[in-house]
Write a structure and sequence with these properties.
By secondary structure, the protein is of the alpha/beta class. The protein has one domain: P-loop containing nucleotide triphosphate hydrolases (Rossmann fold, 3-Layer(aba) Sandwich). Helices cover 48% and strands 15% of the residues. The strands form 2 sheets. The protein has a 5-stranded parallel sheet with strand order 3-4-2-5-6, with helices on both faces. Bound molecules: thymidine-5'-diphosphate (TYD). Thymidine-5'-diphosphate binds next to helix 1 and helix 4.
Length: 248
Amino acid sequence: MDLSPNADYLEHFKPLQHGTKAFRLARGFFITFEGGEGAGKSTQIERLAQKMRAKKYDVILTREPGGSPGAEAVRHVLLSGAAEPFGPKMEALLFAAARSDHVEQVIRPAIDRGSIVLCDRFLDSSRVYQGVTGGLDPLFMDTLEQVAINGMMPDMTLIFDIDPAEGLRRATARRGTEAGPDRFEKETLAIHQARREAFLAIAAAEPGRCIVVDASADHDTVEHVVTAAVFAALEARAPARNRQTAPA
Ligand code: TYD
C-alpha cells in the first residue's frame, strides 16, 4: 500500500524528452482503467505505456486518487482512513476535490496538447465506491462528478473484471503481509462483490465508452486484449494522425 504523497508515480508525469519525435493527436485521447482490488490494472497500464512509447506516441501515465501534487496530498488522507469517521459524503467530496485538481493541473493540459493520458481509476471508482457501496444520493454524486471533471469525460474506459476473492488474494500477495489492507481493501467480500456488479452495470449502460476485460487471465493474455482494444480505438479515432515533433 503506497500512501506517500509524492510517490514515484510522479515520475511518470514527465512529458517526452525535449526534441523527441512523437505522435501527437489533434486532440489527445483519455483512457481510464477501472475495476476492483487486485485486478492488475497497474501492471497493464505500465505495459501499455511502454508499447505506446515504443510506437512514439506521446503518453502520460497517472492515477487517482492523486496524480497532481495537490491531489497526492489528499490521497494520503483518503487511503489512510483518516477521513472515514466523517462518513462517505466527506470522502466523496475529498475524492472530487482531488479529481478536480488532477483534471485541471494534469489531464486537461495533456489532452489539449495532444497527448494520450492513461489514468489508473477515475470517475467510475467514485460512482461505485462512494455512490453505490457508500450509499450516497445519485443526484448528489452526479452533481459532484460534473463539478470534478468539468467536461473531461474519458474517451475510453477499460473495466478490469475479476472475482473479488481472487482480486483480494492478489492484492494481499502484492502488498505483502506486513502492511495491512488500506481503507477500501479491508471491507467485506460482499461489498467487493457489489462493486464488481456496479462496474459491470456501468459498462452495460455505457457500451460506447466502456470495455470489460477479463482480468482473471494471465498478464500476457490480458495485455494482448488491452493492446488490441486500445490501438483499434486509437486508429478509429485518428486514422490520419499527424507526425509532429514535440516542442523543444
Ligand atoms: P490504490 O492503492 O491507489 O489502488 P488500486 O487501484 O490498486 O486499488 O487505491 C485506491 C483506492 O481508492 C481503491 O480502494 C479505490 C478507492 N477509490 C475510491 O473509493 N473512490 C475513487 O474515486 C477513487 C479514484 C478510488
